[in-house]
Specification:
Distance between the termini: 54 Å
Number of strands: 8
Order of helices and strands: EEEEHEEEHHEH
Structural class: alpha+beta
Number of helices: 4
CATH class: Alpha Beta
Strand content: 15-25%
Number of domains: 1
Helix content: 10-25%
CATH architecture: 3-Layer(aba) Sandwich
Largest sheet: 6 strands, mixed
CATH superfamily: Glutaredoxin
CATH topology: Glutaredoxin
């Protein structure tokens, strides 16, 4: 189970490595899963261009009573298990600032657009991993609509351009 630490805000440091130190073995599958939100959940130790799924571990559904474990933490653990054996890295984060449409997750790759999704649940874990794999293979850095898992169509909150993005022909489009 992943639990946020009391008194640590969303800007608190999080280990961005893709290793699994201080992890435990999942009882059912025998796979390794992290217990502490400061430890990244991952399927490989690669940090080179692999897709990353960030899952908010403090998320709960709007109007839902505060309970432990939080639905976001459950989604993070399920996504890490779904990513096992793939090149997708899963990292827990404390807040994606999408509280009215939680649980939330984001997908990114180097040089690609980043995507934020909301209204997710534990059943969306495989969709997040599949979407991350699709984004990693997208030559134009845009997650294709065709073939995208349904939860990533209806749950799309935002698409954010890469840091070095420059729109072509903006002046032409504004005329």
């Amino acid at each position: 189970m992943i639990r946020p630490q009391a008194g640590r805000g969303a800007s608190a440091p999080v280990d961005l490595s893709c290793g699994t130190p201080d992890a435990v073995t999942h009882k059912r599958s025998g796979r390794v899963a992290a217990l502490d939100p400061t430890i990244a959940l991952a399927s490989t130790g690669s940090k080179t261009g692999a897709a990353i799924v960030y899952v908010c571990i403090t998320c709960r559904r709007a109007g839902e009573a505060d309970a432990e474990p939080r639905p976001g933490a459950i989604l993070a653990a399920a996504t890490a298990e779904a990513a096992h054996g793939t090149e997708v890295c899963v990292r827990p984060v404390r807040c994606l600032a999408n509280c009215t449409r939680g649980p939330s997750a984001a997908i990114r790759c180097n040089g690609s657009w980043s995507y934020v999704f909301g209204g997710l649940d534990v059943a969306c874990a495989n969709a997040l991993v599949e979407g991350a794999r699709m984004l990693a293979c997208a030559a134009d850095g845009i997650l294709p609509w065709r073939g995208r898992p349904e939860p990533l169509k209806r749950g799309l909150i935002a698409r954010v351009p890469p840091l070095d993005f420059e729109e072509l022909n903006v002046e032409e489009d504004l005329k």
